[in-house]
Amino acid sequence: QAQLAESGGGLVQPGGSLRLSCAASRFTFSLYAMSWYRQAPEKERELVATITTADEPNYADSVKGRFTISRDNAKNTLYLQMKSLKPEDTAVYYCNAKLSTLIYWGQGTQVTVSS
Fold it and tell me: If you compute the radius of gyration of the chain from its CA atoms, what whole number of angstroms results?
């Protein structure tokens, strides 16, 4: 069964940086579009960034210029580099893999931005 395991979350001060990782296993990572989603308390899950199989990134307006999504197909790993973090970035961040109707989710990692 496909697995996605996020790591790298934690507590960071406003203006700080974090790098999230998502290790993929038991499926052909390079064939899947990969995304990061996040869900804040009492809010709906929202798309943060997507990277295609051709390495083309797309970002939500709220994170453009601050977050960078990347992938390493040799390591079956997805990344999200986050800088200039704001309190409103506080959420559980989820890794997502999609190929047609095949969709996989990770268990999430908590990111808290607070002084």
Answer: 13
Six token digits for residue 106: 């990770």
**Model pLDDT, residue 12:** 98
Spatial CA neighbour of 105 closest among 19, 16, 32, 15: 32
With cut-offs at 50, 70 and 90, classify the pLDDT of residue 91. very high
> Measured between alpha carbons, how far apart are the two ends of the chain, in Å?
40
Report the candidate in 38, 44, 54 with the shortest Cα–Cα distance to residue 96. 38
By CB atoms closer than 10 A (0-12, 13-18, 19+), residue 5 is middle
- Give me the amino acid identity at 107: Q
- CA 51 – CA 74 distance, rounded (Å): 16
